[in-house]
Amino acid sequence: MSRLGGAVENGLHDGLSDMCLLEPLEEDAFIDNLQRRFQGDQIYTYIGSVVISVNPYQSLPLYTHEVIFQYRSRNIYELPPHIYAITDDAYRSMRDRNLDQCVIISGESGAGKTEASKVIMQFVAAVSGKGANIDRVKEQLLQSNPVLEGLYIHGVIKNKNFNDFLFTAFGNAKTTRNDNSSRFGKYMDIEFDYKGDPVGGVITNYLLEKSRVIWQSKGERNFHIFYQLLSGADTSFLKSLKLLRNPESYAFLRHGGCSHIESVDDKHNFTVIKNAMKVIGFKENELSLVFQLVACVLKLGNIHFQHISNFDGTDGCKLINEEEVDEVCDLLGCVSSDLIDALRHRSVRTNTETVQMDLSATEATYARDALCKAIYSRLFSWLVARINDSIRVKSRGKRKSMGVLDIYGFEIFDTNSFEQFIINFCNEKLQQLFIELTLREEQEEYIAEGVQWINVDYFNNAVICDLIEKNNQGILAMLDEECLRPGDTTDQTFLQKLNSLCCTHQHFESRGCRKTQSDRTLPLDAFRLIHYAGAVTYKVTGFLDKNNDLLFRDLSYAMFSCSHPLLQLIFPEGNPQRSSLKRPATAGSQFKVSVNDLMRNLKTKCPNYIRCIKPNDYKRPGLFVKEIVLHQVRYLGLMENVRVRRAGYAFRQIYEQFLYRYKMLCSDTWPLWHGTAKEGVARLFAKLGVHDQDCAFGVTKIFIRNPRTLFCMEDMRKLKMEDLATLLQKIWRGWHHRQIFLRMRQSQIHIASVWRKYRARKEFLRIRHAAIVLCTYTRGWKARRLLKRLRFERQCVWAVGVIRKYFFGWQVRKEYRCKFRATAGPRIVNFLHNALRHRYLMRLREHLPSLSPTDDTWPTPPIIFHSLSEQLREIHHKWRCEKFRNACDQATRNRMREKVTASDLFFDRKINYPRSVSHPFIGDYVNLRQNSKWKKTACDTNDQHLVFADIVMKINRRNGKMVPQLLVLSTNALLVLDQRTLVIKYRIPTSEVESLSLSPFWDKLVIFHLKKNGGDVLTKKGDFLLSSDHVIEIVAKTVLLVQNATSRRPPVYIGTQ
Ligand SMILES: Nc1ncnc2c1ncn2[C@@H]1O[C@H](COP(=O)(O)OP(=O)(O)O)[C@@H](O)[C@H]1O
Ligand SMILES: [Mg+2]
């Protein structure tokens, strides 16, 4: 190995993943290695195929789905140590090679056993098949945990697709070491079909710590279910169970002084546990029955007894709070006097008669406690049986199984009692099994591989197991004997018996033995066993009692006679028909039987081990207390584990895998070895100078004695790998750059070809364009030449035509000159004119417009008759006007004259003129002509020819006052009369009117301007002003009258002045 030299320690920097490779194999190195790994969050380490798990007390990303699938179907040494790796290995061995498996998880309370068992189930659930039925089975198996096991506090696996394992339980409680400590041992066999899908399971429970029901140390709690029930049940349910919500109301929950745990929500957990029970298949009424018993235990705990002295001087007792018993009896369905009797008395049966003895207050309390413990522990066993009923495999057919044993580890307390003794016995048995199986396996492997077996030094604990369990001589046998022996037996007599029988045993010590007589560390009432994992001192007090585990028969009867269906099931010995005088088996012997059953079961399976270690006592993450770990490493016998595992060769591997890993260390085997793998390994070892005594060549595996050999090879491999990496990099870079070069060359060719194509095309297009231009010019030139020629030809043709026409004209004129008179032309023209005129006039006659002077239409003439047409139109219009006038009589004519005069005067000059056009000028608006008075007056003044009469408003020029008066116009004068009396106020001869004035607006005013030189009174007054609705008529008529009288039309002023 000289050539292997090098930095052996390199491999140790991150901690060794397999303790078998530890060199030197010493406790310190072992602990150092664990610590180094723990600090790098590597909580798992192997000893061969055993996993050491150090509780991290914190959530690490080790349990995700990705991690599961990383470990799935991988070789155990390929990835860092993990529970998944050994679970996968076990699962595949079971599925593919039909080898039943078991996983034994051990470690002290709080070391992470229960969590480890969940991790295993999580893995199995994730990698096994899917489907409605399978999922249901998985769910039931997973939910059995919460019911029995308990709440999960730090949430490692929470959220990791692991059917929420938090929750409360019947079997777990808070202890000072673990808030969720399992207070029972559990072995769960999961059964699989031929495909490896889970189909069911069986759970076995071991030794529930029932003393916890009646007593808890400071800082500890009773089983979780009590607190969960009290805080989680709704008020009506609590009432039906006759319970109070406050846990402090119950004596059994008061001892520990901490009914609440910070990190636990009991209320929520109660709901969850109920759901879990429903998933498993518990019916609603079964749930109530279970909780009734839980309630009874609490209520019985509150019953107190008081001492009384009987007449015969013996001690007796009486019940203080009978009402509590009444309520319990209500729940259990029994008569309270029966239960009180059973609690206060004890019947002693002989073959002939039965005698009833009174119990003292202390005895009665003891009996009550025994009853409570019995009810709770039997209820627990019933729950397990009930869960088993649900998860038991229903289908027939061959099954494979994988067992998970989560059992309390070795316990060494300050005071150790019967429970620790039993637990440590169990651990001794497990260690024994481990040794047996590991050595057997080792031996079998050596034989199978044809390697010589070398005996190794390791401690075999079979002697200790014998000391405890040997028939007739073992400590358990003596304990039983002491319990069953008639006469006065006490814990002390038991100790004396032990002293007399075991003192010579090298693993037994007590003050009664000569060798330890003066050992003051050993109390007088105790004995010490040197277990494989260390010495434990057991106080004998209570051994007999706990082993007897007596429940007075009267109480069994009382329980059986209750109508509560569960009680009859769990207290079968209370049935009077079945009762026998035979004592029930003691707790110790029962446990021994079940442990041996368990061992037998485990021996039929391939074992896998998980050893859990607690790094500190404070549940604190990141804290690694060496002393505490060392203590556990010792009592878990981990050093022993390594020694046994290395009992020959520290390392072994299949040739192919080994060669594959190390072939680069020898030029002959690298890169390809053409011989067999075994020959390859031999060549490799020869080259490396590994001596024959350092290794052995098996049939399929190479065995290496010393881990140092492997480390050296690992180091060399590491260096070689670096070289290889460089080589690989070199080759890769060369290849990479060649690829780049090839790609660039290809690109260059491509670019060149594209460029050439582009250039050629451009040249071609230029030539084509030039050719087209040339063609165009040529064609243009040819076309122009042709055009010129054609034009010339056309001119020639035209010239010929003209010459020809002139020639023909000249010829015709010459020929016809003699035949025409010189005046023929104008006469023809004249004739044509006449004919046209005639035709026009004839047509006009047919289309003349109507005779109405207002009709504007007139036929459109041909252009030559335009001026003629205008003249004719005027003539025609005048003619039809004439005709219209002639058709009218004198009166109409006069009226028309008046209207025409009005039009002349006012058209376009006064705004209210157009309104007057359609009104006929009636003249006599007041019918004056018929008035006889007027007739007479008119005769007098010669005004008979009346033209106008109407009431008008005469305006006084001085004050602007309006006076209604009758205005009369006659042919001779203008008269103003009083409208009633018709007396003439003024009479102005027509000829006196000089002129008239009006405004152009809407008003109805007219001013008559009179001649200034007139002699009349009135005329002296000057002009006068009046307003009338018929102002237009008055003015028109006045103008005509004046014109008639003076042959001069008086001027009418229309203006704004
Ligand atoms: N793998 C783990 N990762 C994180 N925390 C853990 C792990 N194993 C255990 N723990 C913590 O330790 C506590 C005790 O574990 P548990 O399995 O109940 O101990 P045991 O069953 O050995 O008494 C758990 O509640 C949890 O907080
Ligand atoms: Mg546990």
TrEMBL record:
One of its GO terms (biological process) is actin filament-based movement. The lineage of its organism: Eukaryota, Metazoa, Spiralia, Lophotrochozoa, Annelida. The keyword Zinc does not apply. This is Myosin motor domain-containing protein. PANTHER family: MYOSIN, UNCONVENTIONAL MYOSIN-IB ISOFORM X1. One of its GO terms (cellular component) is plasma membrane. Residues 910-1057 form the TH1 domain. Belongs to the TRAFAC class myosin-kinesin ATPase superfamily. Myosin family. The keyword ATP-binding applies. InterPro entries: IQ_motif_EF-hand-BS, Kinesin_motor_dom_sf, Myosin_head_motor_dom-like, Myosin_TH1, MYSc_Myo1, P-loop_NTPase. Residues 14-718 form the Myosin motor domain. It comes from Capitella teleta (Polychaete worm). ATP binds at residues 107-114. One of its GO terms (molecular function) is microfilament motor activity. Keywords: Actin-binding, ATP-binding, Motor protein, Myosin, Nucleotide-binding. It comes from the Eukaryota. Residues 595-617 are annotated as: Actin-binding.
